[in-house]
Amino acid sequence: MIRYISVIAVLFLCFNSLQGQNQSVLDQSSSVKSQVLKNEVKYSIYLPAGYASASQNYPVVYLLHPAGPANTVPNNESWYGYGQLKSYLDDVISKGDIQPMVVVTPDANYGTKRISYFNDPAGDFNYEDFFFREFVPFIEKNYRVSKDKMGKAIAGASLGGAAALQYAIHEPDAFGTVVSLSGAVRGYVPGYLKNRYPDINEEILKKWYQKYDVLSYFDQTQKETKIDQAWLVTCGDDDALSVNNAKLHISMADKKIKHEFRIHDGAHDWDYWKKITPELFAFLSNHMKEK
Questions:
Q1: 132 CB-side CA count, 13 A
Q2: Once rounded to an integer, what is the mean pLDDT over residues 173-195?
Q3: Phi and psi at residue 97, in whole multiples of 5°?
């Protein structure tokens, strides 16, 4: 009888172990030590069901969080708290609606309230350098994710959406799929930038911002320039940024640059971003391919 009970106990433990390996994991407590930023940078990472027991690499989405909206805490946990992303991904992946994928969100320095994805004009906070030189290599070394362009995507909302576009332009071989939700795209706005960087000379600011001005970039791009990436740009019709996102679409369309553009009912908030999450991940799943 004792032997029988022991066998049952072992089988129960094995079953629980297998069940655990077949469940998704959301880790929001890990961090990477950055030499560039001279700081620990937290990140959230979603590993799909089956990851623990599999051996293959997975397509990976680098999903950037917004810098707002008001009365929210914009950090690496935003997509899973306000956006309820884990339950959504668990559901659609289990149903086979989208392919299994890893989703990772780095914190953009919420702890100091200096939220930025830029290499700042003062040269003392080079987040973009951190992202490409340290963060992406760290994720690729420590997780089974795609290192191939077509298996990697960059996406984000608001400031994160603008950064997704900027990163895709600056490093065209890094990502095969690019998505901006309510992207904070704008031309050079002296008052806005001076408010962010009050100690920087305006001429220096103007020259620095040229690299991040997505609207001017496409205005100056030649017609029918081929972009070897799948682009999706979306915005809510009640969002103050809808005008600039529409201008971006018009500029790209005028130059016959292939992309997808959507205006939906909605504002600049998590209600809108949650509503279009299915469209976001359907687009990502349809375009990402792991060799």
A1: 17
A2: 94
A3: -70, -35
Q: Which residue has the tokens 């030499």?
A: 35
CA atoms within 13 A on the CB side of 269: 8
- The pLDDT, as a whole number, for residue 4 is 52
Residue 18 has pLDDT above 90, yes or no: no
Pairing relationship of beta strands 39-47 and 25-34 according to DSSP bridges: antiparallel
Phi/psi at 11 (nearest 5 deg)?
Answer: -65, -40
Q: What is the three-state SS of 68-137?
A: CCCCCCCCCCHHHHCCCHHHHHHHHHHHCCCCCCEEEEECCCHHHCCCCCCECCCCCCEHHHHHHHHHHH
| Average pLDDT value for residue range 183-208 | 91
The two beta strands, 39-47 and 102-106, are: antiparallel
Segments of the chain assigned E as strands? 25-34, 39-47, 60-64, 102-106, 152-157, 177-181, 230-236, 260-264
C-alpha atoms less than 13 angstroms from C-alpha of 176 in its C-beta half-sphere:
18
Mean pLDDT (the chain) is 91
Residue 100: Cβ-neighbour burial (10 angstroms; 0-12, 13-18, 19+): buried
- Whose tokens are 């299915």? That residue is 278
pTM of the model: 0.91
Closest CA to 209 of 185, 184, 192, 187: 187
At residue 169, the pLDDT reads 96
Residue 72 pLDDT greater than 60, yes or no: yes
pLDDT at 21 over 70: no
State the virtual CA torsion across 175, 155, 116, 47 in degrees, nearest 10: -90
